[in-house]
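DM from R.C. (forwarded with permission)

"hey, sorry to bug you on a friday — could you get me a structure for this? deadline for the figure draft is monday and I only need the backbone to look sensible"
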Amino acid sequence: MARAPAEIPDVVVIGGGIAGLTAAHALRDRDVVLLEAADRAGGRIFSERRGENWLNFGAHVFGGEHSSSGQLLRELGVRAEAVPGRLAAVSLNGKLVSTGPVESFPFRLPMSLRSRAALVRTGLRLRLAVRAYAKIAAPRDGENPAARQQRMLEFMDDRSFAEFSGVVPEDVDLLFRSTLTRSSGEPEELAAGYGVGYFHLVWDRKGGLSRNILGGSGVVIDALAAALGDRVRLGARATSVTRVASGVRVEIEGAEPIEAKAAIVATPAYTTREIVSDLPTDTAAALGAIPYGPYVVGSILTSETAAMPWDDIYALATPKRSFSMLFNTTNVRRAGEAARLPGGSFMVYAAADFARRLEHLDDAAIEAAFLADLHAVLPATRGIVEEVVIKRWNAGLPFPRVGRAALQERLTRSLAPIWLAGDYLGTWYTETAVQTALAAAAGARALVTGPDRI
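My reply, with the result:
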């Protein structure tokens, strides 16, 4: 005989990343319980304070004030500021270029005439594609965010980014690759429209992801968790979510099951497919078709006391290095400083195949490689590194392959009394996670409250 449930809340939320926390927060006036398998909430949003500085290990940029994530931050009282400095700088073949328009980079980076011509040609095509994508991605009055996301997914969804860019010289290939693999996928895997959209996100300060949270991205996780209090249960691994007469039943490893009127499953696609029972066959297949790529992250604390050459740089692509990208994660402090405060931090990482090349190394070897390349790219970092922490994300981010748009209807169809939420349901990372969490919370609220009492 099945065990009797110990409690019957209105809604149970499975997964304590930003999607699950946002959904539970939106339902905090109801009887809601959140189950998180790990010993900390936040998932891939993870930072640690170091006095006035912080180390960042995952998501680090958020949408503007009028985005769903921006509204959430405002509601929580979490301070976010526009990222100062350059969002697109490059260190290639021994030279760092961080000023002037990106269109000038082909003429200033040390490369062959053939590479220079290819970069100009491909860069122009990319600029035109980004403009087309911007029109597609622009919000429309009264439009549901899901309709906008579908339109974005359909843009250039019939070919890979590598097919869009064509065969290019090695320097050009690595330059684009180091930027695109921020998504955790390789250009040969990524849908072309998504790759174009990625450059739109990076270049569009107003509409893209270009705000940092003061104190580190973990501040928003702490604020959400504090608002929910003991409704968040850490170390509670859900093993199955099943529809029952009263709503749903959630089995929990080593603990009593929970029955509730509704469930919001805010776990990665592969976990969702594993734990949700009786999924439609094509929905299960669509969840299984969502790929995730790896990251190896290095978070580096520094001790400088004066202005440094990198103060005006936020994002730096580093082709041909052990890490593919560098982020000056605490430069957001500089804009509001009356006087220079000491210290800072960088986040560097290798993603996709760059990360796979490091898998066989232990953390000490990766730290040594990252520091050697940091000093080569930014020589003034010698002698000021205080701490290095290596973090590995084996399943870092979901990314859209060619044909991803065709999966969307299967992933977003009604499964009531179960709702799905998470960044894999779209292409805007934290923004997608928050949007889908709010939509799931609204659906669950309607079910548990009833149409006459919403």
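R.C.: lifesaver. Residues 1-5 have pLDDT under 50 and may be disordered.
me: no worries. The first helix runs from residue 18 to 26.
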